[in-house]
Amino acid sequence: FQQFSDTGSRKEHVKITSEPKPGFLERLSETSGGMLIGLVTFLLAFYLLFTNEGRALRTAKSLDEGLSLVVSLDSIHSISQQNEGRLVHLAGALSTSKPLFDPSYGLSIQAVKLKRNVEMYQWVEYEDSKEYEEDGEIKKETKYSYNTEWKSEVVNSRNFDREIGHKNPSAMAVESFTAVSPNVQVGSFVLSKGLVDKIDDFKQLSLSHLEDPHADVTRKEDYFYHSDNPRRPEVGDLRVSFFYAGLSGDDPHLGSADRVSLQLLLYFVGSVPNSETSKYFSLSSKVTVIARQRGDQLVPYHTKSGDVLEILYPGDLSVEEVFQKEQESNTMKTWALRAAGWLSMFVGISLMTRIFHTLVDWFPVVRDLVNIGLKAFALCAASSLSLLTISVGWLFYRPLWALLLALLSIVPILVARSQVLPKKQQ
């Protein structure tokens, strides 16, 4: 049954549900389902750990290969046929042929990407639950609270525990979008789609010097509001902000990109940048690229190790700096996936051995001891099996290191055994 207790405010209420305490067979059935999930998680850990090691070593070899072959270009404004098909390194300012527009707000910017972000003022539901045992029943007390916030996605109020008084519109009148320039260059070289995708250092566009674009739209700070009163918005009101990535190109009103302080143009229909608006401008983006030269295009480079090199970083970096960053990124990704694999194995073993905890659940002292033992077993087994799996992954690449890791995988078992023997003697 359900029992409702209202706090007197329509923004918060408490619901209490209760159900009979599950019997032994019911809990055993639930544990069996958990064992199946544990088995899948356990097997997934082996796959994740094994493939991660092969990926990490393959990427490291590909980066070493790239570093030994890469050629730094003397000029980004001339294309040398001698470098056709080779891995090249270059740095320069981004350029695009045409500005990106948002006609709905009369806004334009010379950049690689322009993102319109639309948020709606709407109700959001929060839950805070706790379970307890009372009169032989398991009771769950859930506190629901509601607050109004700006959200970039529509919150479906139909899923609320109490929709009355907290109803949201089903859709936004204005949609978010990201415009991408169809032709992005560094000097005379055209960037591939993969390189353009890497230009994602979005910064919010300042709108403080602009006027309201329409009668029903109000500008306040760096937002356009579809609201009667932006200071006190109502549910369903919208606010729109803009972000850009990869400033680029030249503008006849401001001078060349290497002489102005921001290669950015914002205007409404009929307006022209002047000395007042130029203070909002800054230098166009400079990037460093390592990719294969194919005519006037920069495309992915396929290494002998089987990886693809298609690298872009903001700023002016040397070849050594770029490959050092890539090696560091590879190391971080490798350790993150190793941790995820170990955790997956630990959770899987814990779920598969949970049945022993269920069998002694009626005896509190024995249950606590078994619980501690099962966690220790899962910890040692996950550590040993993770090291063993990693060593197998290294077997074809670094056999000596693989043997060392295989020997290390025995250590957690020996440590656990050394703790058990004194207890038996006692």
UniProtKB/TrEMBL annotation:
Signal peptide: none annotated. One of its GO terms (cellular component) is nuclear inner membrane. It is a multi-pass membrane protein. The chain crosses the membrane at residues 32-50, 335-356, 376-396, 401-420. It is found in: Endomembrane system; Endoplasmic reticulum membrane; Nucleus envelope. It holds the Pfam family TMEM43. Its main location: membrane. One of its GO terms (biological process) is lipid metabolic process. Keywords: Endoplasmic reticulum, Membrane, Nucleus, Transmembrane, Transmembrane helix. Belongs to the TMEM43 family. This is TMM43 protein. It comes from Prunella himalayana. The gene is Tmem43.
